[in-house]
Amino acid sequence: MSKVQPVCRWTGRAIGLDLHRDFCEIAICEEGQSYGAGRVAMTAEGIEALADSLLPSDRVVMEVSSGAWEVARRLEGRCQRVVVVSPDDTGIAQARAKTDKLDARTLASLLWRGELEAVWTPDDRVRVLRRRLHRREQLVRARTRAKNEVHGVLMRTLQGKPPCSDMFGVKGRRWLEQLQQKLAVEEAETLESALRQIDFLDREIEQVERTVAQQMLDSPEAKRLLTVPGVNVIAAATFLAAVGDITRFRDSRKLIAYLGLDPRVRQSGDHPARPGRISKRGSAQARWALVEAAWSVVQQPGPLRAFYERIKGRGSVGGTV
User: Fold this and answer.
1) Gyration radius of the chain over CA positions
2) What is the pLDDT of residue 148?
3) How large is the average pLDDT for residues 232-239?
4) Which residues partner with 28 through β-bridges?
5) pTM: predicted TM-score of the whole model, two decimal places
6) Are 272 and 261 in contact (CB under 8 A)?
7) CB-based burial, 32-51: b 16+ in 10 Å, e otherwise
8) In angstroms, rounded to a whole number, what is the distance separating the alpha carbons of residues 11 and 113?
9) CB-side exposure of 148: number of CA atoms within 13 Å?
10) Which of 50, 75, 157, 307 is the most exposed place for a label (fewest CB within 10 A)?
11) Residue 245: which residues within 8 A CB-CB, separation 6 or more?
């Protein structure tokens, strides 16, 4: 995999794209002067027309968004370089005047001056894994909403807690079926509908997880991660999808900062520097996977649990994990 290269100032056209759902605003910067160049539709035909208008010496820049990677893929090879940047690095969100035309011109000007740093472009393997994990996340959220509907029925009908630890397990389902016969018609319909949704989503989640697991079987990195205590297939896949090519990080401190696990530091005047909470920049899903793995390992006897027990009194339980 290629390393991320710095974007330097050069002679030629810098083209800024401000992507939206229905259209793409275009701006061009030449010799330090930027101007608008209209817009094209955010369709395959519109992006193809844009690609046909590019010169071999052009460079194109856009911010990370849901359609940015597909646009970048279609433009690659039609110009000198396609650059995708993080919105946090452009300063556009903090601008007092913010319009589509101004945003595109700002991107073009920053690219021409060489003030932008491209984010790492995931390869097809990482891109597919990210999409599958995102789909799984949406399915899990939908299942959680359906389960909350069931809890809402119990609260509205004053049923209290179920007589089992897992309300959606075998014993819990049997209890819910018996309860359904005693409820009012509208509450029984809500309960039945929610349980149908949970059954459907369980099957969908199982199918996605099976696909992810099959992909992980072909990954040497995933096999090594699975030897770490507390790491399961989904945690390993989430970490690999967020990090991608780990060789692009020069050392562990760079990786920690990328994941948002580095502490914030505050210092002013003669006062000593004070570390604060973690920065939480980067992938929230990767941090979630690491937290899940940590919770799993501290529940089992071993040196890591002993370390957790020794330091958990220093702060909150979540912070300790």
Assistant:
1) 25
2) 95
3) 92
4) 15, 35
5) 0.78
6) no
7) eebebbebbebeeebbeebb
8) 10
9) 6
10) 307
11) 1, 120, 123
In eight-state DSSP terms, residue 248 is: G
What CATH fold (topology level) applies to the domain 14-113?
Nucleotidyltransferase; domain 5 (3.30.420)
List, in order, residues 6 or more apart from 162 with CB less than 8 Å away. Answer: 154, 172, 175, 176
How many Cα neighbours within 13 Å face the side chain of 80?
14
Asked if 260 and 278 touch (Cβ cutoff 8 Å), the reply is yes
Locate the domains of the chain by residue range. Answer: 14-113, 124-218, 219-266+275-310
Q: Count Cβ atoms below 10 Å from residue 269 Cβ, excluding itself.
A: 4
pLDDT category of residue 12 using cuts at 50, 70 and 90 = confident
For the stretch 80-125, pLDDT in tens is 999 999 888 788 777 777 888 999 999 999 999 888 888 888 888 9
- How many whole angstroms from its chain centre is CA 82? 22
Q: How would residue 275 be classed by pLDDT, with cut points 50, 70 and 90?
A: confident
**Environment class of 100 (CB within 10 Å of its CB; exposed 0-12, middle 13-18, buried 19+):** middle
The CA distance from 79 to 262, in Å, is: 37
Cα–Cα distances in angstroms (integers) from residue 72 to residues 17, 197, 291, in the given order: 11, 37, 33
What's the whole-number average pLDDT of the chain?
86
- DSSP label of 29: E
Q: Which of 76, 68, 59 is nearest to 112 (CA)?
A: 59
DSSP track, 90-152: T-GGG-SS--HHHHHHHHHHHHHHT--BPPPPP-HHHHHHHHHHHHHHHHHHHHHHHHHHHHH
Residue 310: pLDDT above 80? no
